[in-house]
TrEMBL record:
Entry protein name: GAF domain-containing protein
PANTHER family: GAF DOMAIN-CONTAINING PROTEIN, SLR1143 PROTEIN
UniProt region (Disordered), positions on chain: 1-20
Cited Gene3D superfamilies: 3.30.450.40
Domain GAF: 140-280
Chain segments annotated as transmembrane: none
SMART domains: GAF
InterPro entries: GAF (IPR003018), GAF-like_dom_sf (IPR029016)
Length: 285
């Protein structure tokens, strides 16, 4: 008897999130690796025992693929980090007590259009090369950036502080303080839910006093289901002019986060960038 083909993993109604597919993994590798993509993909698939042409895979195999890609150098490694965040977000949300019983997320045409734009925006090769060239994902970086996130949260009396790196398919919390639940487990979110991704485009600070009433963010699943309300962030801009993410704080709704507060947050962000650039490998002679 011929075995039945695998079924797609169900879409999570509460967050509108689908699990990645093997095809999406392969496409991301092609964008990052160029002419070497097929060889990289076959090598990684062989390492984890996945058929390179497979599209529908269980979450465990997707996670194994993401971990194997994360171990690759350069931009391929960032692809693995991002797809790992997407896959683990799906797994963690699907495994919550009560499963996916929160009901369908709100339908907001403007929000859905924005999420499609964020998800499908072509990556900047220069920006992603900058991300790949910095020490963002090592245990040593995690310790330093967690401290930076804690300092920002403490400075403003916020519940959460983050150093968020915006990748192609996800935002990755390279440093965090105050997270709980699935966000603490995954340390990131799909890119289309990212407040921080706004600053990659605008290069300007982004403040949302109360996201529950904000026309852009009120239908964001992080607002509807995960309690994000106040948000203030400033872009992390390297000396080469690339916006790699943001330094931000999150908490209860508040008014009065003005220019003086933004100036302090900018200073803290500059310190984060200086810390990251101090670990940049020296150019070859």
């Amino acid at each position: 008897m011929v075995p039945a083909p695998p079924s797609p993993l169900p879409r999570l109604r509460s967050h509108g999130l689908s699990a990645p597919t093997g095809d999406e993994f392969r496409a991301a590798v092609r964008r990052a690796a160029g002419p070497d993509a097929d060889a990289v993909w076959v090598r990684v698939c062989e390492r984890v025992g996945v058929e390179p042409a497979a599209s529908l895979l269980p979450v465990e195999r997707l996670e194994a693929l993401a971990d194997a890609l994360s171990a690759e150098p350069g931009r391929i490694g960032t692809v693995g980090i991002a797809l790992g965040v997407r896959t683990r977000s799906y797994r963690a949300l699907a495994a919550r007590p009560g499963g996916d019983e929160d009901g369908e997320r709100s339908f907001d045409p403007g929000r859905r259009t924005l999420e499609k734009l964020l998800r499908n925006r072509p990556p900047s090769d220069d920006r992603m090369s900058e991300v790949a060239g910095l020490d963002l994902f090592s245990p040593e970086a995690r310790s330093r950036l967690d401290d930076a996130a804690r300092r920002a949260a403490d400075r403003f009396g916020a519940a959460i502080g983050l150093v968020s790196i915006v990748l192609e398919d996800a935002q990755y919390f390279a440093g965090s303080h105050g997270l709980s639940g699935w966000l603490a487990e995954v340390q990131g979110t799909p890119v289309e839910w990212s407040f921080c991704a706004t600053m990659v485009r605008t290069r300007e600070p982004y403040v949302v006093p109360d996201a529950t009433g904000d026309v852009v963010q009120r239908a964001n699943p992080l607002v509807e289901n995960d309690g994000v309300a106040f948000y203030a962030g400033v872009p992390l801009v390297t000396s080469r002019g690339q916006v790699i993410g943001s330094h931000c704080i999150i908490g209860a709704p508040r008014d009065g986060f003005g220019e003086e507060d933004l100036a302090v947050l900018r200073q803290l962000a500059d310190e984060v960038v200086a810390l990251l650039e101090s670990t940049r490998p020296a150019p070859a002679p």
